[in-house]
Amino acid sequence: MTRHRLTLAQALVRYLGAQKTDIDGSIEPLFKGVWGIFGHGNVPALGEALAEVQQTLPTWRGQNEQSMVHAATAYAKQMRRRQMMAVTSSVGPGASNLVTGAATAYVNRIPVLLLPGDTFAHRASAPVLQEVERSDDGTVNVNDCFRPVSSWFDRLTRPEQLINSLPRAISVLTDPELAGPATLCLPQDVQAEVFEYPDWFFEEKVHTLERSGASAESLQRAAQLLRASSRPVIVAGGGVHYSLACDTLKAFAESHDIPVVETSAGKGALADSHALNAGGVGVVGSSSANQIVEQADLVIAIGTRLSDFTTGSRSVLSSARVPQLHINVAHLDAHRHNGVPLRSDARRALEELEPLLSDWKAAPAHVQALEAVRKEWRAEVAQAIAGSGQNRPSDAQVTGVLRDHADASRDVLVVAAGSMPAEGVKLWQPEHTGGYHSEYGFSCMGYEIAGGIGVKMALEQQGSDGEVFVVVGDGSYLMMNSEILTSVGLGKKLVILVLDNRGFGCINRLQSACGQAPYNNLLDDGTLSDGGFPTVDFAAHAASLGALSEHVESLDALKDALKRARTADRSVCISIDTNATESTGGGSWWQVGIPAVSGRAAVTEARETWQDAGLGKQAY
Q: Does the structure show a pLDDT above 90 at 615?
């Protein structure tokens, strides 16, 4: 048996290069590349190893460790978890910066390999620069923060441990149920240590999408539920995309005349124009979706974890009003909310249910009801896009202009946190399955621009020349904007729209709805100096990072700017002032903690009219 005398770092990157993935019959690298910011915890050994393989496993330098994870997460999400990326950082603040990105990927069940540097395993020079020490535990350091937000966690204290740990990490990253961040902490001395690795460790391995299935008994039980219903509704979650089941879902819904509602992660599973698409469901959903669910006698939840924004805090879905069938590859999600579990890959489940249903269809009146609520919803959308006549346009009006400009067959909208995931679910109209990219599982502000880079990389990998539109509020932009520089430097063109309502408009609206006085959300409602906050010139700022940019004063000017942006040769940033008060209706009730006792009468009233009213609809 041949052995290879390599450092741990060299062996790690060689192993990653040997991992392949089968994408529709084409064998591609499993790892597209590595994002890295080097420091003393990773540059001497891992940095050297990555430089040796830069032609086959490129390394890209981001501007912030958190945003690098967002870019990697967005790429894997847009690639439907068939390809992924790794991210490396130094020890200390570089590593801890990764944690928010890790949590975002973990909540969204997206694979990303995290390789944070770690303190010396030998401890001879402790405490070292950037080391976090505890007086009660000598084994803990800052990297232990990754444990609760990693699907696999290990700290390698000997180079030969890589032989067992790295394949286990890859097995988690490629598992449909367990997918999420895998974290391998790499002490900087161990990275550089040598071991004679066996040649079989570096043999090429091709990973394929595993399609686990349900038992015959479970399928029969599910089929009986369907045949007994006359007004079923399908809830399409992100798992429909990751199972590559969109076409199967369309055929299944059409075969049985079943309306489909979508979660934020599931949007695009069915073309927006499809007659059976009722729209987004839940808190940020449409009235058409929420009304058709209200009329249902069976809910079929496919590939969704049924978060509170999807269920309306269990007042719309999972309220025990009607039975629910949960088709999900994950045990945790299949057994939620007292539903009937069908543990299976989504596409396989639909394919295996089809012959058990024969010619069964939903009642014709159910489809007729869907047509009626869709018509009502289109009128609501038209009203929202028309606006209220305020001197600043609403987020909905800006989204309407962008929607009309976009090519629904190839362009992508990227949003996260705040107002835009609501406006995106309600107003964006994708006609292809990858047309909507939302991070709304962790609702992480600052995901948008970095995520846009990952999406652009995925589109290029897929051979698409579609534009990537990143819509970000001024609050998120100020949190994390530096990857504009990266997008320009790497030639990954984005069209970035900055909606400036001078603060956190979404939370300001929630604060007002809870009966509170405006405080600490909009820039002018906080604790200020005499001069207050200045007006930010977002166009000038983006230009300083290398983007083409302009500020527009009207919706008509925005239309012209978008036309110019489409012909631009690099990233474009367009800023526009918007109002902080308007939002599109159609959503559902959502539970928040309004105080039971308050000195403000408006807060007490909000508690009675909103909180208590919604609690009466819940399952408990």
A: no
Residue pair 265/363 in contact (Cβ under 8 Å)? The answer is no
Query: Based on the domain organization, do 247 and 140 belong to the same domain?
Result: no
- Mean pLDDT (whole number) for 82-107: 97
- Reported as a pLDDT band with limits 50, 70 and 90, residue 535 is very high
Query: Which residues constitute the domain of residue 278?
Result: 216-376
CB atoms within 10 A of CB 548: 19
3-state DSSP call for residue 340? strand
Residue pair 532/524 in contact by the 8 Å Cβ criterion: yes
What distance, in Å, lies between the first and last C-alpha atoms of the chain?
Answer: 63
- Tell whether 354 and 297 lie within a shared domain: yes
Six token digits for residue 460:
């290029």
617 exposed, middle or buried (CB, 10 Å; 0-12, 13-18, 19+)?
middle
Rounded to 5 degrees, what are φ and ψ at 35?
-95, 135
Phi then psi for residue 184, to 5 deg, are: -115, 110
Mean pLDDT along residues 362-372: 96
Statement to judge: residues 105 and 220 lie in one domain: no
> How far lies 380's CA from each of 425, 585, 586, in Å?
14, 8, 8
**Element containing residue 197 per DSSP (H, E):** strand 194-198
Residue 448 tokens, joined: 């948008």
Contact 499, 578 (CB under 8 A): yes
By the 8 A CB rule, do 111 and 180 touch? yes
Instruction: Give 253-299 pLDDT, tens digit per residue.
Output: 999 999 999 999 999 999 999 999 999 999 999 999 999 999 999 99
Which of the listed residues 156, 177, 207 is the one where a domain comes to its end? 207
Residues 191, 42 share a domain? yes
The answer to whether the pTM exceeds 0.70 is: yes
Do 558 and 429 lie in a common domain? yes
So what's the pLDDT on residue 527?
Answer: 75
Number of domains in the chain: 3
In a domain, 590, yes or no: no
Helices 364-386 + 287-294 axis angle, to 10: 150
Q: Is residue 612 one of the residues assigned to a domain?
A: no
> What six digits make up the tokens of 99?
């944690």
Distance CA 469, CA 289 (A): 26
Tokens in use for 352?
């295996």
Residues across the chain: 620
Burial environment of residue 221 by CB neighbours within 10 A (0 to 12, 13 to 18, 19 or more): middle
Q: Name the domain boundary from 376, 396, 431.
A: 376
Is there a single domain that holds both residue 53 and residue 10?
Answer: yes
**DSSP state letters, 339-403:** PEEEES-HHHHHHHHHHHHTT----HHHHHHHHHHHHHHHHHHHHHHH----SS--HHHHHHHHH
Q: What is the pLDDT of residues 395-424, one digit of tens each?
A: 999 999 999 999 999 999 999 999 999 999
Residue 246 is part of a domain; what is its CATH number?
Answer: 3.40.50.1220
**Sheet of 31-36, strand order:** 59-60, 31-36, 84-89, 112-118, 181-187, 152-155
- Residues 34 and 220: beta-carbon distance below 8 Å: no
Domain at 555, CATH number: 3.40.50.970
Confidence of residue 609 (pLDDT cuts 50, 70, 90): confident
Residues 446 and 570 both lie in one domain = yes
Are 58 and 199 in a shared domain? yes
Separation of alpha carbons 180 and 172, rounded Å: 7
